């Protein structure tokens, strides 16, 4: 007789290779061969054979059979799901085999990214654009943390822009070891502060740019307890001392029971996320028209590089600390990027300008008089110094400048800083962000 229904559960290869260290032989043993063959054959012949690979489809299948339905779309949907299931399974096997035969520092000549829809979104970047959110089931991202796997405890459903902003805030705050608060608006950190007292860090981060912080995303790298939750709920804008600060999202690695209860009382719409620290050395993908760009994630920390003094005056210990803090902040700001910081607190930043001078002026306008004696970090080298960004920074009273170097006019930057008694540090590392 003929087969009417084919139901297959594949060997649990994905679960096996992600459960811990296993031998190569054990991994090979868990690759299903007959199952995918059965599935593909049944799916190809879906006109006559119902193929099922997901137990959630059992009720619909039973109803279809019991009512003797003849809906070809139902059969096609099961066939599509079957082929997609096998493709995802094969992508896991392919990824695992590539890592078994390569050191991991090379890009495979071809690969598949297994995506699984987690939710449809109200709209995309703008209301006229449809959108959805997908989780990445690549083996490399198992237990990798990040916003995609965050737990939402409260608030409205996440939007397209919410995901982008929350990701930017979480990636930035995860860089810091000391208790830190980061405030983000349109993926740019507009306030960053580190303090042993996280309440003070929060106040300083908002104070850096309270206008931008309003309606932004607030991220912490410490557990939010009752005291911090009350401060977030009741804090008034430094601009007028009256307006209660409004945020779209709060994200942290954890919440106490009371802290979560208090924070939920701030607003019915406030999205409260709990996330795990993002993994390092991840593959970063970005789409361009007709293709994709792949690169390693930018994971360098101040401890990984050497800050080389290029000027006559070497920075003091506190100035060097300020420069490292500013350098860590500037890597998360859109290019051209300038950050001014002091005492582990961002004072001002300029982002996304076509020329570095405009970004510098924006940063100084936000920092005000507090910029005097502070550290300035640039994401890339200064192409000019005299009557340009470097001299303007010196004239505004900056104490230390940290930049990658590499310009044919680096000596001009050195001479300019020497004239004004400013300490100039070369990092040798550029931090473009587009």
From TrEMBL:
Gene3D superfamilies: 3.40.140.20, Methylglyoxal synthase-like domain
GO biological process, one term: 'de novo' IMP biosynthetic process
MF GO annotations: IMP cyclohydrolase activity; phosphoribosylaminoimidazolecarboxamide formyltransferase activity
Domain of life: Eukaryota
Pfam families xrefs: AICARFT_IMPCHas (PF01808)
Keywords: Hydrolase, Multifunctional enzyme, Purine biosynthesis, Transferase
GO CC annotation terms, alphabetical: cytosol
PANTHER family reported in the protein's UniProt record: BIFUNCTIONAL PURINE BIOSYNTHESIS PROTEIN ATIC (PTHR11692:SF0), BIFUNCTIONAL PURINE BIOSYNTHESIS PROTEIN PURH (PTHR11692)
Name this polypeptide is given: Phosphoribosylaminoimidazolecarboxamide formyltransferase
